Amino acid sequence: MEKIKDILFKLFKLENIAFNLTGYVESKLELFKLEIRTDVTKALSRAMTLIFLALLGFLFLLFLSLGLAYLINSFFEAQYVGFFVIALFYGIVFVSLYINRKALSSNMEEQILKSQKNKVTD
């Protein structure tokens, strides 16, 4: 029975087809792994860049705010008024963003979806 099976396999070259199919599937798996690894690497590098830029932006804003607060303090000849003015400014910005949070969120969603569609078409 085993001989007949071997003869049929050889006759229809099923051995080669099975071997080629296995090689094809393994190659596709390796390619998929490489693509995932590349995508993860790109995402991590973007995230690290954004974190670094956010940190620098935060430090810039912090020192700019402190400088403006001291400038306002010297203008009003007080030790605290400048800090209250800067805090009031940030409070107004925060409240306005909080009130418009749904519109901002939907706008950001649309922008992200557009960028994803552009990446798919490219």
Describe, in short, the structure shown.
With 122 residues, the chain is mainly alpha-helical. Helices cover 93% and strands 0% of the residues.
Write the layout of secondary structure elements.
Layout: H1 2-11, H2 14-76, H3 81-99, H4 101-121
Radius of gyration: 31 Å
Q: Can you tell me the residue ranges where pLDDT is under 50 for at least 5 consecutive residues?
A: none
Number of domains: 1
Q: What is the 3D shape?
A: rod-shaped
Short descriptors:
122 residues; mainly alpha; rod-shaped
Describe it for me?
By secondary structure, this protein is mainly α. It has one domain (2-121). 93% of the residues lie in helices and 0% in strands. α2 (14-76) runs antiparallel to α3 (81-99). The model has no long low-confidence stretch (mean pLDDT 87).
